[in-house]
């Protein structure tokens, strides 16, 4: 279906989750939308992540509000794109030490704990939610607001729902190299004019977009991930270990300061265990964080062994064999006053990027803010 010339035109550059959510927001507002992606199909952070719609750990105030708004929009959007695999599965953050339990106890006393869907579960209560959790932990923080999508399926599911509008066109293999007022130009010198151009190039902008973003308050972060063969036991909730309490702003405060130093391997890799059972049964396990460029090109076994051991201890069983490993890079805004980065590059041309490790979560609400 080709985009209709009589409607206001939106060109979206970038086929990741941020670009796709802008395409959806544009179609909803009556635009005729063309989405241009450098690769035939997107291969960036949006297909390499956990698919966690992670609300619980957000900072109080603006970040939590944006995450809650995004979660609501995700649910509505996914209703029209069931193949995205959205499920209100909740999460369990597991405390193995009394110091970690103290952080969970403080979390359920937060003023906004109810909005986050927080409740404290004893070991027995957590096992009643997830019988697969037979390992050594003391208690768990349940977050009812956290949800899961399937990152390897979500973008194509959302594109299919966009196609159904009759006002959307996707072009893979189309790299934008130049931009100017109300237009962008691709590598074949084809010019794409629009009333509004929204560029969502993720962590790997090139050409004019790289030039436009030079000096912006952004950095890149590299993560290592792995996936096992299918795990036989049911496991609906997303799981996190006590190390995750060190990284999410919701848990800041004296109990967190009393956690003591992190063990050497996870400390060296800024690692936490996050684990999601995919709809097809595989366990997605991560993650690590590297900030210094140039990033290594290889995947390192050390943090992987640590994360697999922690997961196996919580489940009290050996994990299925690892089937695949990968690294992903996201772009993160470095100005603490911002949740992501948006700038006007030319008249009618906007760039939106830098949501960091929360882009899968926040993207529907970020797209709404662009149009607002
Ligand atoms: C391993 C990992 C785990 C994560 N886990 C989570 C999670 O569970 N929950 C969460 O909320 N967030 C998570 N994140 C963060 C999240 O994945 C990112 O914030 C989000 O995917 C960024 O989306 P994006 O569309 O900006 O970027 P991308 O997905 O990288 O998409 C950008 C696209 O733009 C294209 N592009 C770039 N330049 C051009 C050009 N000049 N012309 C045409 N196309 C171009 C690229 O080819 C790419 O496809 C994770 C990230 C990683 C790496």
Describe the structure.
The protein is of the alpha/beta class and 372 residues long. It folds into two domains: 9-47 and 152-216 and 338-371, FAD/NAD(P)-binding domain, CATH 3.50.50.60; 91-144 and 218-333, D-Amino Acid Oxidase, Chain A, domain 2 (2-Layer Sandwich), CATH 3.30.9. The chain is built from twelve helices and 19 strands. It has helices at residues 17-28, 45-48, 62-79, 98-107, 113-116, 123-129, 151-163, 207-213, 254-257, 264-268, 301-315, 359-371, and strands at residues 9-13, 32-36, 52-53, 91-95, 118-122, 139-143, 147-148, 168-171, 176-180, 183-186, 191-193, 196-199, 218-228, 238-240, 274-277, 283-286, 322-333, 341-346, 349-353. Strand 9 (176-180) and strand 10 form a beta hairpin. Helix 3 (62-79) crosses helix 12. The two termini are 28 Å apart. The model has no long low-confidence stretch (mean pLDDT 97). The structure holds flavin-adenine dinucleotide. Flavin-adenine dinucleotide is lined by residues 13-19, 36-39, 42, 44-46, 48-52, 54, 175-176, 200-207, 209, 223, 225, 286-287, 328-330, 353, 355, 357-361.
Mean pLDDT: 97
Specify the CATH homologous superfamily of the largest domain: D-Amino Acid Oxidase, subunit A, domain 2
Share of helix among residues? 25-40%
Which molecules are bound in this entry? flavin-adenine dinucleotide
Short précis:
The chain is built from twelve helices and 19 strands.
């Amino acid at each position: 279906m080709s985009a209709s010339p009589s409607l206001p035109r939106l060109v979206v550059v970038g086929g990741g989750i941020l670009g796709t959510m802008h395409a959806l927001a544009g179609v909803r507002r009556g635009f005729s939308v063309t989405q241009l992606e450098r690769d035939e199909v997107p291969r960036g952070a949006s297909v390499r992540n956990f698919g966690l719609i992670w609300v619980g750990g957000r900072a109080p105030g603006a970040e939590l509000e944006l995450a809650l708004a995004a979660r609501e929009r995700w649910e509505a959007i996914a209703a029209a794109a069931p193949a995205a695999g959205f499920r209100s599965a909740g999460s369990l953050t597991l405390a193995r030490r009394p110091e970690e339990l103290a952080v969970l106890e403080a979390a359920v006393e937060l003023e906004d704990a109810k909005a986050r869907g927080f409740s404290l579960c004893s070991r027995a209560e957590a096992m009643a939610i997830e019988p697969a959790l037979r390992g050594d932990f003391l208690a768990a923080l349940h977050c009812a607001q956290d949800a899961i999508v399937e990152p390897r399926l979500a973008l194509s599911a959302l594109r299919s729902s966009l196609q159904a509008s009759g006002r959307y066109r996707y072009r893979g293999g189309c790299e934008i190299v130049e931009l100017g007022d109300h237009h962008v130009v691709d590598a074949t010198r084809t010019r794409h004019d629009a009333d509004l151009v929204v560029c969502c190039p993720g962590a790997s902008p090139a050409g004019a977009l790289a030039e436009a973003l030079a000096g912006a308050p952004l950095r890149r972060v590299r993560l290592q991930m792995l996936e096992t063969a299918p795990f036989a036991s049911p496991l609906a909730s997303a799981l996190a270990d006590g190390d995750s309490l060190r990284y999410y702003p919701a848990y800041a405060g004296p109990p967190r300061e009393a956690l003591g130093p992190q063990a050497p391997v996870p400390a060296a890799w800024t690692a936490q265990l996050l684990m999601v059972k995919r709809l097809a049964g595989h366990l997605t396990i991560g993650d690590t964080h590297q900030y210094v460029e140039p990033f290594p090109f290889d995947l390192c076994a050390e943090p992987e062994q640590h994360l697999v051991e922690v997961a196996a201890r919580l489940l009290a069983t050996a994990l299925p064999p690892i089937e695949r490993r990968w690294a992903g890079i996201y772009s993160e805004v470095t100005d603490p006053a911002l949740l992501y980065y948006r700038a006007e590059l030319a008249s009618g041309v906007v760039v939106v990027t830098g949501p960091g490790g929360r882009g899968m979560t926040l993207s529907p609400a970020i797209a709404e803010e662009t149009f607002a």
